[in-house]
Amino acid sequence: xxxxxxxxxxxxxxxxxxxxxxxxxxxxxxxxxxxxxxxxxxxxxxxxxxxxxxxxxxxxxxxxxxxxxxxxxxxxxxxxxxxxxxxxxxxxxxxxxxxxxxxxxxxxxxxxxxxxxxxxxxxxxxxxxxxxxxxxxxxxxxxxxxxxxxxxxxxxxxxxxxxxxxxxxxxxxxxxxxxxxxxxxxxxxxxxxxxxxxxxxxxxxxxxxxxxxxxxxxxxxxxxxxxxxxxxxxx
Length: 235
Description:
Layout: E1 7-10, E2 43-46, H1 55-61, E3 67-70, E4 84-86, E5 93-96, E6 104-106, E7 112-119, H2 133-145, E8 149-154, H3 160-172, E9 179-184, H4 193-209, E10 215-219
Parallel strand pairs: 1-2, 2-3, 3-5, 4-6, 5-7, 7-8, 8-9, 9-10
Helix pairs in contact: 2-3, 3-4
């Protein structure tokens, strides 16, 4: 590349693009020169799951990246094998689904983790343990990234054990979480939000009070009410 981009977006080509015949088989990963590095890139969006190499290669290729937006999911290590550790010390902000961060750990903790997928309540509400696989993936992502700040989209009806486990994991991290912004996506009615928020707070208050969190921001995507106006956020 002749340019020195600071922002680089790598996404899959549109489906309407007809792939010309090539020597490389369909679905093969890009074969990158081991000596190639783009030191200018500070923002990287790695969104092509089919063609991009793994995160280890991307960390080597873009060693100065500070902000990573990714949909790539690394392979879960075999039973008894340690997590993959990636040397990407410049990362400050990472964004993606929980599955993108559940199976690897960076050498340095990251300042901000934003998880874009919604974690819904699965199974009985009064479950005593965190048994839902998606909840385990979410917790693994937080545990691996060890962020100082976390943005997540969660179901307000998730049981208290989930919140206690979340608090326990970030309290034991080397970079204890201090700022937590949670979007309660199921609280979206202007008429019932007060009751729903009170019920949610009664469920999670013990976990929050036991944490070292400095700032808790609660977001609710309220629908606009024609009679009372609408809100977009509750704090």
